[in-house]
Design a protein that fits this description.
six-stranded mixed sheet; 352 residues; 9 helices; globular; alpha/beta; eight-stranded mixed sheet
Length: 352
């Protein structure tokens, strides 16, 4: 392992539902991430990810393609991922934190209606070696949060569960779906939920934890809209609630990472559109070995970069040296080459 991370469990904090707090021997400055890795194909991209020398890897969902209600089949598919030589190298390189998306949850575009969600959660927890005393083992849903780094250089990682509690998606009326757009329209019911009330309450607590940079991992895109595939825009009241919660808690340093779409891009919600008073970035990285294609003209009013449809992984690089640390969000192709990047400072993620 390039970097050893020592973790200290604070008993009082655990009783209050606070995250496991991990203090690194040096600040976290190199994070890799990705999504959509079918276990039925080779996964050579892990070698390129390891070459980046990440201190942390974030698995953003569709970590396998399970798509089943049979948990023995689900376990067998996870076993194929575990046997990948490149993935074994990654585990020897850095810690891996994960959330799920629909296919490793168990059903395409699925939400709370999936009948095996509790059983799938147990298989997920077992595969990712979630400790027996973790809140993830004690409550419905796999949401979690951890903080890495010394005071003044803390990175909080918030892993959302956008599947376990999510209400049904709403489809276009028959015959009205425009050509080239996804099948869903916004669910305008103000009571419809993405995260469920327990997770929302927990998230409010997490956003009040001390941290300089906060990385919110959402399996589906948060900022992008207009394409009518899965995204937070399908639940506009919930998307607004997220933005208002960031403002309410006065949480600085928030950015999003996402997967799902089988292409990569970097999006930005302008400061004037965000109640937080600062811009919200979303780095989308997908797919690790199952590229899509055909999304190049897909609408996204907040896109900063072009759609990148080939195999890719994402990185977050933080330079803590300046008084105002710099952050780079980037996409790398399957051969490791840098293909997109956006730079800004930590100060840009603060209310003026």
């Amino acid at each position: 392992m390039f970097y050893r991370i020592a973790c200290q469990v604070v008993a009082i904090a655990a009783l209050l539902g606070a995250p496991l707090v991990c203090f690194a021997e040096e600040p976290i400055s190199r994070i890799a991430l990705g999504s959509c890795a079918t276990q039925e194909r080779p996964q050579p991209i892990w070698d390129q990810i390891v070459d980046y020398r990440p201190q942390l890897f974030l698995f953003l969902g569709d970590n396998i393609y399970g798509d089943t209600q049979d948990m023995e089949i689900m376990k067998a598919k996870y076993a194929k991922l575990a046997a990948m030589p490149g993935y074994q190298k990654l585990l020897a390189t850095c810690p891996v934190l994960a959330t799920w998306d629909d296919h490793d949850y168990g059903v395409n575009d699925g939400g709370a209606e999936y009948p095996k969600r509790a059983e799938s959660q147990q298989v997920f927890n077992d595969f990712f070696n979630v400790p027996a005393d973790s809140p993830r083992r004690q409550r419905p849903g796999i949401y979690d949060a951890q903080v890495f780094g010394p005071e003044g250089k803390r990175v909080q990682v918030i892993l959302l569960d956008t599947r376990y509690f999510r209400d049904p998606l709403v489809r276009w009326p028959a015959g009205e779906r425009p050509r080239g757009q996804g099948p869903y329209v916004p669910n305008e019911d103000p009571a419809a939920t993405m995260l469920g009330e327990a997770q929302w309450k927990w998230l409010e607590q997490q956003l009040q934890q001390p941290a300089e940079l906060r990385i919110v991992a959402s399996s589906i895109q948060f900022v992008a809209d207009g394409h009518h595939w899965e995204s937070w825009q399908n639940f506009p009241h919930q998307r607004r609630r997220m933005l208002e919660l960031i403002a309410k808690t006065k949480a600085g340093g928030v950015l999003f990472v996402s997967g799902d779409r089988h292409h990569g891009e970097i999006s930005k919600l302008a400061a004037e559109q965000s109640p937080s008073g600062y811009p919200i970035y979303d780095l989308t990285s997908s797919s690790l070995n199952r590229p899509g294609g055909g999304n190049e003209r897909e609408r996204n009013d907040h896109r900063l970069t072009e759609v990148y449809s080939a195999i890719n992984f994402g990185t977050i690089t933080i330079d803590w040296t300046p008084d105002d640390p710099t952050i780079q969000l980037a996409l790398h192709g399957g051969e490791g080459r840098l293909v997109q990047r956006v730079r800004f400072t930590l100060g840009d993620l603060r209310r003026p």
